[in-house]
Amino acid sequence: MRFTISRSILLFGLVTCLGVMSIVGISSLALRNLEITGPLYEHIAAGKDLLGDILPPPEYVIEAYLDANLAAQTPADVADYKKSLADLQAQYNDRKTYWQQADLPEDLRVELTQTSDADVQQFWQQLNDVVLPAIVQNNPVAIAQSMSRLGEIYRAHRAVINDIVAKATAADNANEAQAAAQLQFYNILMMSVLAVVILIVLTGLFMVRRKVVAPIKTLAAYMATLAQGHLELAVPFMARRDEIGEMAVATSSFRDSILSHQRMREEQEVERASAEYDRKRNEAAREDAMKQLDVVVNAMTTGLDKVTKGELTFRLQEWFPPDYKKLRMDFNQAIDQLMQTMRAVVRSTQAVTASADELTHASDDLARRTEQQAATLEETAAALDEITATVRRTAASADEANDIVGKAKSDTEHSSVTVTATVAAMSGIETSSRQIGNIIGVIDEIAFQTNLLALNAGVEAARAGDAGRGFAVVATEVRALAQRSADAAKEIKQLISTSGEQVEIGVKLVGDTGKALTRMVGQVAQISRIVSEIAAAAKEQSSALGQVNTAINQMDQVTQQNAAMVEQSTAASHGLAAEARDLASIIAQFKTEEAGEAKPGAMLAAE
Questions:
Q1: Cβ distance 183 to 34 under 8 Å?
Q2: Which helix (H) or strand (E) segment is 420 a member of?
Q3: Considering only CA atoms, which of 257, 204, 215 is closest in space to residue 240?
Q4: Quick one: pLDDT at residue 606?
């Protein structure tokens, strides 16, 4: 099979179109896999959603645990907390159903929807069946015991959540690294194919100049030398088996015809020298042959001049002598084949230009989508910054609350010590009252004995008669004084007895107050521990959000780099389109259509 110019140009056009289609296919594949709705982005988004759901609620029951503690502290508001806890439980069940059907790694799905869910179900059961009824009954002992068990369940749940967060973060980092590697691979592959296509186009342009344009100019110059009579020169490109070779064969036939006529003219000159009659008879024929030869030479010169100027629509229409008709047919056939070849080149050039335009549009679209993705990532980073700042403020508030609870604990412990001292003082007062009562009893006995002695003294004074009358008066006064002392001692004893009973009641009340303060110290210590756990959880959330923010910023940087590479690809596609238009302008030098129709170069320029 001959490897002609038309087939070469057709093969060149097919290879170029395949290269352009490869670039467009690679770009489409990269866009489909790495765009916002692509599979890798869906995995990354699912991981981010998972982190957003478990830090904090609804998949992380820290808010429910906090509401339970607040309800335990303020039993009067338990109805509001019941409603809030019911909403949190409903949100947890909704999100659990969502994550059971979501596209997650199997180990994360099992740990979230089974391992963590087992602890959460125990948490809700303990909260609804034990804690809330104890709060409604306002039973401090039951509240403390049930809250202690609820805290154990919550800490087990938090350990599982921390493990899920670590695994989800690692999975997201792996997906992001895979996306960056694939994008880099697609960019390198697209740039490599683009370089190969540009090299093929440049090689094709060079081969068209070398294999088509230059040989035609050489044949035109050779025809000019033939017209000047230099028939000793050999016809170039005789060995070629394409359209240029056919034109060379036609030119060689023309040269052979001229040489044949020259030999014939020389023979006629010899015969004219031998016979004048024959010369005169053949002179008219010879002159006629020369005229015919001049007509043929002039027509061929005009035709080759037209071909040199690129007018491939020109055909030899003049009358040729019978001996030169085949030369005219060969010339016209060679021009027809060359025109068909150039038409194929025009079609290939149009296809290359259209493919280059499609590649340019695809590159522009890729650049626009990359810019949109960069803007979206920038907004996401800003939102995460705001969330991180909010969580940090929450952690600071929790630390401040922890300090306040610590101070309250210290004040309560100090009050407990004061009440203990008060109990001891009241006990001392009670003991002193008892001792005073004993002393008053002794005084009462002394008054009784004094009264008896005064009575005996009065009896003895009465026996003494007038001599003992003064002593009797004294004895009567002493007896009266002893009676008043006894009455006063009885009143004091009664008052001290009443005071002792009141002191005993006060000691009992102060003891009850001390026990209540002791319970308050324990409850304040439990509140301090809970607030400390909340502060630690808030700090962990702030750290996790910081890691997520760092990952988003890294994705933003990778997207900016991708945008720069897309701009380079767009510039290269514009360069390919410019090269295709240059090829069209070169081919536009050849007129391949009938008179009155537009040239291919003009049509490409209009497009």
A1: yes
A2: helix 325-464
A3: 215
A4: 32
Question: Would you say 360 and 542 are in contact if contact means Cβ atoms under 8 Å apart?
Answer: no
User: What is the CB neighbour count within 10 angstroms for residue 148?
Assistant: 10
Q: Give the CA-trace dihedral at 145, 151, 157, 161, to 10 degrees.
A: 170
Report CA-CA distances (Å) from 544 to 95, 383, 384. 21, 15, 11
Sign of the dihedral defined by the CA atoms of residues 85, 88, 93, 96, in that order: negative
Task: Give CA separation, 225 vs 218, 222, 229, 230, 270, in Å.
Answer: 11, 5, 6, 6, 28
What's the rounded Cα separation, in Å, for the pair 433 and 191?
Answer: 106
The Cα–Cα gap between 422 and 429 comes to 10
**pLDDT at position 543, please?**
77
Q: What are the beta bridge partners of residue 591?
A: 311
- The gap between the terminal CA atoms of the chain, to the nearest Å, is 36
Q: Is the Cβ–Cβ distance between 61 and 157 less than 8 Å?
A: yes
Alpha carbon 128 to chain centroid, angstroms = 39
Residue 441 above 90 pLDDT? no
Q: How far is CA 428 from the centre of its chain?
A: 75
pLDDT at 295 over 80: no
Tens digit of each residue's pLDDT (9 = 90 or more) over 395-431: 677 677 677 767 766 776 776 677 677 767 767 776 7
The set of residues, in sequence order, having a beta carbon less than 8 Å from that of 446 and lying 6+ positions away, is 485
Residue intervals of the chain classified under CATH 1.10.287.950 are 418-514
Backbone angles phi, psi at 591, to 5 degrees: -90, 110
Nearest one of 530, 447, 527 to 491, comparing CA atoms: 447
CA distance 197 to 19: 6
Angle at 321 between CA 280 and CA 285, to 5 degrees: 0
Say which residues have a Cβ less than 8 Å from residue 34's Cβ, sequence separation at least 6: 40, 41, 179, 182, 183, 186
Among 547, 383, 544, smallest CA distance to 55 is for 544
Residue 343's CB is within 10 A of a number of other CB atoms, namely 18
CA distance 585 to 554: 47
Instruction: List beta partners, residue 311.
Output: 591
DSSP SS3 for 318: coil
Which whole number is the average pLDDT over 327-344?
82
Please state the rounded mean pLDDT for residues 337-342.
80
Which CATH architecture does the domain made up of 418-514 adopt? Orthogonal Bundle (1.10)
Helix, strand or coil, per DSSP, at residue 234: coil
Query: pLDDT tens-digit profile of 29-59?
Result: 665 655 554 565 566 566 566 655 555 556 7
CB atoms within 10 A of CB 375: 12
Could you read off the pLDDT of 527-582 as tens digits, one per residue? 777 767 776 776 777 677 677 778 777 776 777 777 677 677 777 777 777 777 77
Which candidate, 538, 536, 527, 535, places its Cα nearest to that of 406?
A: 527
